[in-house]
Structures are given as structure tokens and as C-alpha cells.
Automatic annotation (TrEMBL):
InterPro entries: C9orf72
Protein name (database record): Uncharacterized protein
Recorded GO CC terms: autophagosome; endosome
Highest taxon listed in the record's lineage: Eukaryota
Gene Ontology biological-process entries: autophagy; endocytosis
PROSITE patterns named in the record: DENN_C9ORF72
MF annotations from Gene Ontology: guanyl-nucleotide exchange factor activity
Length: 374
């Protein structure tokens, strides 16, 4: 169940600064313990000194993990925290912890840690933290948690009352979240009994969920999930659908999605020795026609791939083809090399075939895309 609630800010010199931290001691009895400002202040100043962190009994070992997670969320938003009214919902899955957070911007903030009376233009991260073993519960109840977090954010952004009174309101919202979450597992268990496979973590490794989420956000919510396990495909879709637009979703067997906001294509291939070429060709051609970047998740290989839209010359189709590469390893150099070979009379067909072989070693599903260059 919920482990802690955190409010963190970003300092361009010191990095993430924990502003408020509540540990949940007992969900059912709604018992919270708030870490004192003095402890947080000392932690923020000494967090780069491992000896102090590991020897001082005032610091929970998890505080460092919390700070790092919030820091990465804040760092990704701090320079793009544009308008005052823009909020970013985020789900971060690390090796041991999961955080559901809202990252937002305030024009003015009373910094209770560094004793700065009025800090201008501050980026804040407010979130609930869970253990990784609770990932299935987190995914199922993400929308509920995010809704309540936004209530607290609205109070922090728009409250005209004194700072201490405002934080008391936030504290009430936190206690309400914990109280309502404490009764959800029993309710969810009833609905999960109707599913063929009620356990989330039994089938999908959290690392592929994390990679898929990162890539999915990079490609603006366009995603395809492949796999020979119907359950795994739908579970990945369930996780990714938390950050979805309202696009129609269906699977090749017509499997109903668990997620409340389905939006991408899931492919379930029944044969264990599957040939996904035909299905992948259809999906990649669709991305090609819509001129979109695409995330492709293969649950069998535990791999996440991306397509990269390539801008062609004026005499080419305005819908440029895409090259499929591993996430974070997009290779525009391939096009540059191909153009160089063609300009100098080289054997471009052999070059493409060699590149096909390279892709084949990665995944046989994505070869069709290269034909666009022939």
C-alpha cells in the first residue's frame, strides 16, 4: 500500500529539495508521521555526503531514493514549466519504488526548508510513493490517485490563506487519499476475480513497463504492443493507457482492454513461433501514412523500439518512411550514409541489405520498413 507522500522542489544549485515528507505508518487507521523541517533541511544539505546519510539515525534510507526520483521528474520539467496553469501527471517506476506525481509551477512559494520567505517561479513535484510490489494496484487506481493529487495541487496554487493553513488543507487531502485507498484492495479483489489472470507482476517485468512509458511519452502517445501472450499485451496496454489520448484500441483477437482509456493497437499472435512481419508491416505503414513517430513494444523479447520520422527531399512523398531502432539509439546516420553512397555511385542496394541484416538480428518484425528506400 501507499508508503509515503512527498512534496519536492528544484534548486538549480542544490538539485531536488524535499519540502514536505509524510510517512504512512498505518493506512487503515490513517496514521501519518511528518518528517520535521529541521531533518529535511539537514538532509537536503548533506544528501551528497553518503557517510552522513548512512550513519544518521534521523534519515530513512528511502529518503535518498525519494529525492532522486522527484529530482528526475523535476529536471525533465523545470525548464519547460511554462504557463502557470499547466500541470504534468507523471508515473515513475524505479527498481524498488513507484511514484505517482503531479509536477507543476507556482509563481510564488514559501520555502519552508531553506527559510527563504518568498521564492519566485518554483517548479514543484507532489506525489504518492509505493513499493514496486504494489505496481498492479498503482496502475489500476492511477486515475483515482492523480485526481486527488490534483486537488491538493489546486489548493497549493490558488490558496489565498496563510502558508500553514494551506498545508493543513493539503494534509487533510492526503489523509483522505490514504483512507480511501485503504479500502480499495478488497473492492478490486472482487473485480479481479472475474479476470482470467488477476496478477499483474506475474507476467510483465516492470523494466519493460518503465521503458515503454518513457518511449511512449517521447512519441506523443503513439504505441503498438506485440507479443504471443494475450495477457502480457493487455497488461502493457493497461499501463500505457494511463497517459493516453482518446484513440480507438483493439487487438487482433478482439480482446477487450482492461484500461479505462484505450488508445493503441495491441497484437496477440497465438502461435509460439510467431511471424509478426505482416502485422508489423500494417502498423508501420499506418504510422508512415500518418507521419507519426511510433513506439513498438515486444513483450516476448522484453524490448522497446521507436520509429523515427525522416524528412525527405521535395521530390519524395511528403510522408517520409521511418527507421526502426532500439529506444534511445535512433540512427539518422543511416540516411546520411545512404545518401552519400547514392551520390557517389556506390552500391546502395547492398548497403540496404546489410542494414536489413542488422535489423534482422534485432527483431525480424521490422524489416518491411527498409523497402521504402528501394
Amino acid at each position: 500500500m501507499i508508503e509515503a507522500v512527498i512534496l519536492s522542489s528544484w534548486d538549480h544549485i542544490m538539485g531536488p529539495q524535499i519540502q514536505k515528507l509524510w510517512f504512512v505508518n498505518d493506512c487503515k487507521n490513517n496514521l501519518l508521521s511528518e518528517v520535521s523541517c529541521n531533518t529535511l533541511r539537514e538532509f537536503n544539505l548533506s544528501k551528497h555526503n553518503k557517510d552522513i546519510l548512512h550513519t544518521d539515525s534521523n534519515y530513512s534510507p528511502d529518503m535518498e531514493v525519494y529525492s532522486i526520483m522527484c529530482g528526475q521528474l523535476l529536471l525533465s520539467e523545470v525548464d519547460s514549466c511554462k504557463p502557470y496553469d499547466e500541470w504534468a501527471s507523471r508515473l515513475y517506476i524505479s527498481e524498488y519504488k513507484v511514484i505517482i506525481a503531479v509536477v507543476f509551477h507556482v509563481n510564488s512559494w514559501m520555502n519552508c526548508i531553506n527559510e527563504i520567505k518568498d521564492t519566485k517561479d518554483t517548479c514543484l513535484c507532489f506525489g504518492t510513493i509505493f513499493k514496486c510490489k504494489d505496481l498492479g494496484f498503482v496502475l489500476k487506481n492511477h486515475m483515482f490517485i492523480d485526481h486527488h493529487l490534483r486537488k491538493a495541487v489546486d489548493v497549493m496554487q490558488n490558496s489565498l490563506i496563510p502558508f500553514d493553513s494551506m498545508m493543513k488543507k493539503v494534509d487533510e487531502i492526503i489523509r483522505n487519499i490514504i483512507l480511501e485507498l485503504s479500502v480499495l484492495p478488497e473492492e478490486n479483489l472482487v473485480s479481479l476475480q472475474n479476470l482470467k489472470y488477476p496478477s499483474f507482476q506475474s507476467f510483465v517485468n516492470s523494466s519493460i513497463i518503465s521503458k515503454a512509458l518513457a518511449s511512449h511519452l517521447q512519441t506523443s502517445g503513439c504505441c503498438v504492443v506485440l507479443g504471443s501472450s494475450e495477457v502480457s499485451v493487455n497488461q502493457v496496454l493497461q499501463a500505457l493507457s494511463l497517459f493516453s489520448s482518446q484513440k480507438k484500441s483493439f487487438s487482433s483477437k478482439g480482446t477487450s482492454q482492461i484500461s479505462p482509456k484505450p488508445y493503441f493497437k495491441g497484437i496477440f499472435i497465438q502461435e509460439s513461433n510467431k511471424d509478426t512481419n505482416k502485422e508489423s508491416e500494417f502498423l508501420l505503414e499506418k504510422a508512415f501514412k500518418e507521419s507519426l513517430s511510433l513506439t513498438v513494444v515486444d513483450t516476448d523479447l522484453n524490448k522497446v523500439w521507436q520509429t523515427l520520422a525522416i524528412q525527405g527531399s521535395n521530390n519524395m512523398s511528403r510522408y517520409s518512411p521511418s527507421i526502426v531502432n532500439e529506444t534511445g539509439l535512433l540512427i539518422p546516420q543511416f540516411l546520411n550514409d545512404l545518401a552519400f553512397i547514392q551520390q557517389n555511385g556506390g552500391d546502395s542496394e547492398l548497403f540496404i541489405e546489410n542494414f536489413n541484416t542488422f535489423l534482422l538480428s534485432k527483431s525480424a518484425s521490422f524489416i518491411k520498413i527498409i523497402d521504402g528506400f528501394r
